[in-house]
Design brief:
about 220 residues; mainly alpha; Arc Repressor Mutant, subunit A; 2 domains; 10 helices; globular; Homeodomain-like_sf; TetR/AcrR family transcriptional regulator
Length: about 220
């Protein structure tokens, strides 16, 4: 009975293929890479490739997502006192951006080649999940006025677009400056906004309440 080996073998093959795709993208444009190049570099067969990926763009997207996950590894900062959130988030974002910048050439190629839309879509989904589970704003997003996934996806889309634009720029803004910009974007979008408690709409015959510039909520303490 050899069926129990199928899953581990598939994982090994996937890891080999993703590693090969990443190494090829480090040196070549996506349109210069073929499936033959990938399987030869990974020392697997073409049927093995197609058993795991339907096409090259899917493999490119998986390689990009794997590197993103590596850059975010170990940066879960959920339970942080409000007063410490800006500093803690800035440190985490700075470290993540530093790791991403080390692979700037890789990301520039993958977001401008075949499957770029798939890469961006998966990057947004990945970041939305991170925002909902591993950041100081996770609880606020889950208790805000909109469905948590809607808020997280909207915020992740903006952060992803800004981050990819930064990564593919030459010259690019210093890591420290970009980290401050992204930290402030996340906090100021959530605190008093997407992370505010839901309220009932005002009756038709009454004036809608005015939005305060600095709502006095526990979450807003983290902005000072």
């Amino acid at each position: 009975m050899r069926k129990p080996e199928t899953a581990p073998r598939r994982r090994r093959s996937r890891d080999l293929l993703v590693g090969a795709v990443g190494e090829l993208l480090d040196a070549h444009e996506p349109d210069q890479i073929t499936i033959t190049d990938v399987v030869n570099h990974a020392s697997v067969t073409r049927p093995t490739f197609y058993a795991i990926f339907p096409d090259l763009p899917s493999a490119f997207a998986e390689a990009a997502l794997t590197r993103m996950a590596d850059a975010f590894a170990g940066e879960s900062v959920v339970d942080v006192p409000a007063a410490q959130r800006p500093e803690v988030m800035l440190g985490a974002i700075t470290r993540i951006l530093t790791r991403l910048e080390a692979d700037a050439g890789f990301y520039a190629r993958v977001v401008n080649g075949h499957g770029a839309h798939r890469v961006q879509t998966q990057a947004i989904a990945f970041l939305a999940d991170e925002l909902l589970t591993n950041t100081p704003v996770s609880r606020a997003l889950r208790t805000g006025p909109l469905p948590a996934e809607t808020s997280a996806t909207a915020l992740a889309a903006g952060v992803t677009w800004i981050g990819l634009r930064w990564l593919t720029s030459n010259p690019r803004e210093p890591v420290g400056d970009m980290a401050v910009e992204l930290r402030d974007l996340v906090l100021r979008t959530v605190v008093g906004g997407l992370g505010s408690p839901a309220t009932r709409p005002a009756p038709d015959n009454t004036e809608a309440p005015q939005i305060q510039d600095h709502p006095e909520t526990p979450e807003s303490e983290g902005l000072t």
